[in-house]
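Saturday, quiet lab. Running sequence design on the C-alpha cells for the scaffold JK sent over.
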C-alpha cells in the first residue's frame, strides 16, 4: 500500500480484501449460488452494512473475482508479446495464461465458476478479451490471419474452446495436465485461423 494513505484508508483497503478473501473461500467450499451476503459478512467478521459499503451486491463479489483475472492477464500478456513473435505461439501462450489463472485459483474455485448460471463469461469488453482482439488485429495487419475474419468472433470462439478445456479439467477433478491440454487443443484451433 502506498505510504501516503491514511490509517483509515489502509484499514478500508484491508477490510475490502478480507471480505473478498472470505467470499472466495466460501465460493470454493459451497459454490456461489449456495452462499449469502450474510454468510460472507459473518466469515469476514463485518456487518452486512459494511459488506454493502464495499460491494453493492453478492454479484459484485463475482465481478471482483473476474476483475482479478483481468489484472492477471494485464500483467502476463505483455511478457508474451515481448518474448514471442510467431502468431501461433502468441495465441497459444495467451491461452496458457488462461490455464495458469485457473491453476492459480485452484480446481475447486474453477468448479464453482465454470457453471451455466455464471453469466460473467458472456460479459463483453473485459480487458482479457480486448487484449486478444488487439493481438488478432495486429496479426491481421501483418497478414498472418485473414482480414475477412472478424477478430471479435475469433476471440469469442477461442474463449469457448478454452472454457471447454478448463471445464473438462474440472470434470476430472484437476487430475489432467491443464497446460498440456490447453496447448494441444488451442494449437489446433489457432491453426484453422492462420493463413497457410
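Result came back. Writing it out in full:
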Amino acid at each position: 500500500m502506498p505510504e501516503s494513505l491514511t490509517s483509515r484508508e489502509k484499514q478500508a483497503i484491508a477490510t475490502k480484501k478480507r471480505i473478498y478473501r472470505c467470499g472466495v473461500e466460501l465460493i470454493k467450499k459451497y459454490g456461489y449460488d449456495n452462499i449469502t451476503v450474510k454468510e460472507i459478512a459473518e466469515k469476514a467478521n463485518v456487518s452486512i452494512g459494511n459488506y454493502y459499503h464495499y460491494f453493492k451486491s453478492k454479484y459484485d463479489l463475482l465481478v471482483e473475482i473476474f476483475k482479478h483475472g483481468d489484472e492477471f492477464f494485464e500483467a502476463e500478456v505483455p511478457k508474451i508479446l515481448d518474448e514471442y513473435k510467431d502468431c501461433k505461439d502468441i495465441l497459444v501462450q495467451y491461452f496458457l495464461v488462461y490455464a495458469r489463472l485457473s491453476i492459480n485459483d485452484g480446481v475447486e474455485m474453477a468448479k464453482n465458476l465454470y457453471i451455466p448460471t455464471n453469466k460473467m463469461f458472456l460479459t463483453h469488453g473485459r480487458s482479457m478479451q480486448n487484449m486478444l482482439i488487439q493481438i488478432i488485429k495486429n496479426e491481421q495487419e501483418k497478414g498472418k490471419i485473414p482480414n475477412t475474419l472478424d477478430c471479435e468472433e475469433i476471440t469469442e470462439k477461442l474463449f469457448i474452446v478454452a472454457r471447454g478445456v478448463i471445464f473438462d479439467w474440472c470434470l476430472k477433478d484437476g487430475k489432467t495436465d491443464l497446460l498440456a491440454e490447453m496447448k494441444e487443443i488451442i494449437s489446433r484451433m489457432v491453426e484453422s485461423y492462420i493463413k497457410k
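Notes for JK: The mean pLDDT is 94. Residues 58-83 form the longest helix (26 residues). Ask whether to fix the surface positions before the next round.
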